[in-house]
Design brief:
The protein is mainly α and about 250 residues long. It has one domain. Helix content is about 65%, strand content about 0%. The protein has 9 helices and no strands. The N and C termini lie far apart (about 60 Å). About 0% of the residues have low confidence.
């Protein structure tokens, strides 16, 4: 059996899943905020985009790991064919694996420093979630380092990667800063905050969807893929028979 993935079909499937997760989040948050159903038999937590350890978080981990796999396959192909920037592809794959770890464990919460007074909250404003500052600097540095690499990409791939990055960063950092400002000014996990969370995650998921499409399209035009096969176990070497002379 031969399994083939097509860029457009894969992107369409991911788009449908993204929309379903958005709808489930909105419906369960409506039940929580309007109908007063805080738990709804676990469904509120199961589809809450602002929480970890649930279906949206698991989906995000799988998608990011798939993107990391595509990057690694491209890096391997570039290295074997002697193409430029093989190391850049490989480093990107490792960075995406770290992002997957972040998505699955909410690692950035370990770097949050909460303001203690209302004055500090207002001063910090959009940096209420303090990790956004350090992550923002890291994104800027990586972007500048990878600028020659991005410019080296084919035009279609380059534009798609830039759009994907803009969407993802707008969600992961931009909307997180908007939500931070809202909380700093006294907001709570109400309907407005839930809407911000939905927009944030939608941008992140859409950005990753576009990125995966860009990678798969790049791979398809260069016949880069992963082949899996099952081979029999190697047979053990026959034991040397002892040669003994017959007894006299």
């Amino acid at each position: 059996m031969h399994l083939s993935l097509r860029p457009r079909q894969t992107a369409a499937v991911l788009a449908v899943i993204t929309l379903l997760l958005m709808a489930a989040h909105v419906a369960t948050q409506y039940a929580r905020l309007v109908l007063g159903r805080e738990n709804l038999r676990g469904l509120v937590h199961m589809f809450d985009l602002d929480r970890g350890g649930n279906i949206p978080a698991f989906y995000s981990v799988i998608v990011v790991l798939f993107a990391a796999l595509c990057l690694w396959l491209i890096a391997d192909h570039a290295a074997r064919s002697g193409r430029a920037y093989a190391r850049h592809w490989k480093i990107l794959a490792i960075l995406l694996a770290i992002v997957a770890l972040h998505e699955g464990t909410q690692l950035h919460h370990l770097f949050v420093i909460r303001p203690e007074t209302q004055e500090q909250r207002l001063t910090w404003g959009p940096f209420y979630f303090s990790w956004t500052l350090s992550y923002g600097v890291a994104v800027l540095v990586v972007g500048l380092i990878y600028l020659p690499f991005i410019l080296h990409l084919p035009r279609a791939t380059r534009y798609l990667v830039l759009v994907a990055g803009l969407l993802y960063v707008s969600g992961a950092l931009g909307m997180e800063m908007v939500a931070g400002l809202y909380i700093a000014e006294g907001g709570t996990r109400d309907f407005a905050f839930t809407t911000m969370t939905a927009v944030e995650e939608f941008l992140e998921m859409t950005g990753m969807l576009v990125f995966i499409y860009a990678l798969m399209d790049y791979m398809a035009h260069r016949h880069i893929g992963l082949q899996l096969g099952i081979k029999p176990d190697p047979q053990p070497a026959p034991l040397m028979e002892e040669i003994s002379s017959p007894a006299a």
